[in-house]
Amino acid sequence: MMARLGSQGMRVAFALLAATALAACGRIIPEGRGPQALPPAPVQTAPVAPPAPPPPANALVAGVHAGPSLSSLGLTSATAAPALQAFRLSCPKLLTRNDASGLTVRDDWQGACTAANDWPVEDAANFFANYFGTVTVGSGAAFVTGYYEPEIAGSRTHIPGYDVPIYGMPADLVHARPGDAPVKSNGQTPFGRYDENGQFVPYYERAQIEDGQLGGQNLEIAWAADPVEFFFLQVQGSGRLRAPDGTVMRIGYAGDNGQNYTNIGALMRQQGLIGTGPGQYPGSMQGIIAYIRDHPEEGRALMRQNKSWVFFRELTGAGPIGAMGVAVKPHVSVAADPLFVPLGAPVFLSMDPALAGATQANGLWIAQDTGGAIKGANRFDSFWGAGDDARRIAGGLSGHGTATLLLPRGSLARLGLR
After folding, report:
1. Around Cβ 51, how many Cβ atoms within 10 Å?
2. Mean pLDDT of the region 13-36
């Protein structure tokens, strides 16, 4: 028990035990005898540690500082060309959406977006040099992971061996009406449902949905063959279903149940299941899947600790659709927290070269997506496309580095950084 208390808790426990002993000693002195009765011993209590400060609300609160010169980033037109093309696709959204980070306003993007329409990609480095400056948010110390578009066995219809339902959005999953639930940091009320008494309550969690809570409502848009593969497709947020006849159906994120996302890899690390020691599994997606395969009952219980559930819709077009409403591109699109990075903004990542494989994420990216686990300043999830190579890179990528945010020059002037 003492080990769980920690040093502060042990000091409190010791003080309480000491106070109890002193009070007992005082009671054994007969009243009216001996020297003057001693006053009750004061109870000694350890100071209570102040609560941890809440995380910063957005980039402005976290602190924004002038970044390194663009020339020091080593951009070339060859490396910057894909980012220019992706930025161009983001511009229609940049010019109409509000920036929750507080760093930019719509008009800030007008000059760069107008120029991007006709700027030759073979001169991409000069485009960014002419229209952008750099900033860092907070310390600029970044943590970067990877995601990809998985392809799993699936079918549009319920056929033998394909028994895992893939649901579209249920009609009773709604945002709380104003006043029925606290507003979240993004300005929206949470997802949930209204019960039979008209009370807003959390939506069904993963275990309830897996146990059939949504059955019989004709919500199934397809069926998967493997619950483990489908779990990780949900984590990725989009993917491909390959049917027995070879046809492919692409599905993408339509919404979620509003329950908090839990990283089961972090849970496994806390339990000593992953690591580099004897009997431990590698701390990669592949290692997590191997544990679940080897321990099916424990693995199922572990996956259920992530109460979040993702609902899907069928996608058509060039690729999976990110949070901006445009198709994300391999080694170009990155997911970020829109409270700290304006969606559509370029981000330059420089990874720690000591981390094996992490330097593959070096370079210029465009923030075009979000993710349930991608929260806070300088937290990024890089997109790697589809196929075995994408799965290998994304599944093994987890590293630290630095993040430099590129903002229009007008934004820098308004922020007093130019």
Report:
1. 6
2. 32
Q: How far apart are CA 111 and CA 114, in angstroms?
A: 5
Question: What type of residue is 100?
Answer: A
The amino acid sitting at 116 is: A
Q: How many Cβ atoms are within 10 Å of 11's Cβ, its own excluded?
A: 15
Residues contacting residue 238 through CB under 8 Å, at least 6 positions apart: 149, 250, 251, 252, 253, 312, 315, 320, 321
Cα of 48 vs its chain's centroid, Å: 32
Please report the DSSP string for 276-315 in residue order: SSTTPBPSSHHHHHHHHHHSHHHHHHHHHT----EEEEEE
For the sheet containing 310-315, what is the strand order? 164-167, 220-224, 151-155, 238-242, 248-256, 310-315
pTM for this entry: 0.70
Alpha-carbon gap, residue 79 to 63, rounded angstroms: 29
- For 81-133, write each residue's pLDDT tens digit: 999 999 999 999 999 999 999 999 999 999 999 999 999 999 999 999 999 99
**Mean pLDDT, rounded, for 396-406:** 93
Residue 371 pLDDT class (50, 70, 90 cuts)? confident
Mean pLDDT of 67-92: 95
End-to-end CA distance of the chain: 56
Nearest C-alpha neighbor of 61 from the set 365, 337, 289, 344 = 337
145: nearest Cα among 354, 323, 393, 406 = 393
Estimate to the nearest angstrom the gap between the alpha carbon of 74 and the chain centroid: 29
Reading the block at residue 104, the tokens are: 């930019």
Measure the CA–CA gap between 231 and 288, rounded to whole angstroms.
12
Query: Domains of the chain: which residue ranges?
Result: 1-52
CA dist 246 → 221, 226, 256 (Å) = 18, 17, 29
Q: Which residues pair with 238 in a beta bridge?
A: 252
Helix (H) or strand (E) holding 82: helix 77-94
CA 235 – CA 288 distance, rounded (Å): 13
State residue 156's pLDDT score: 97
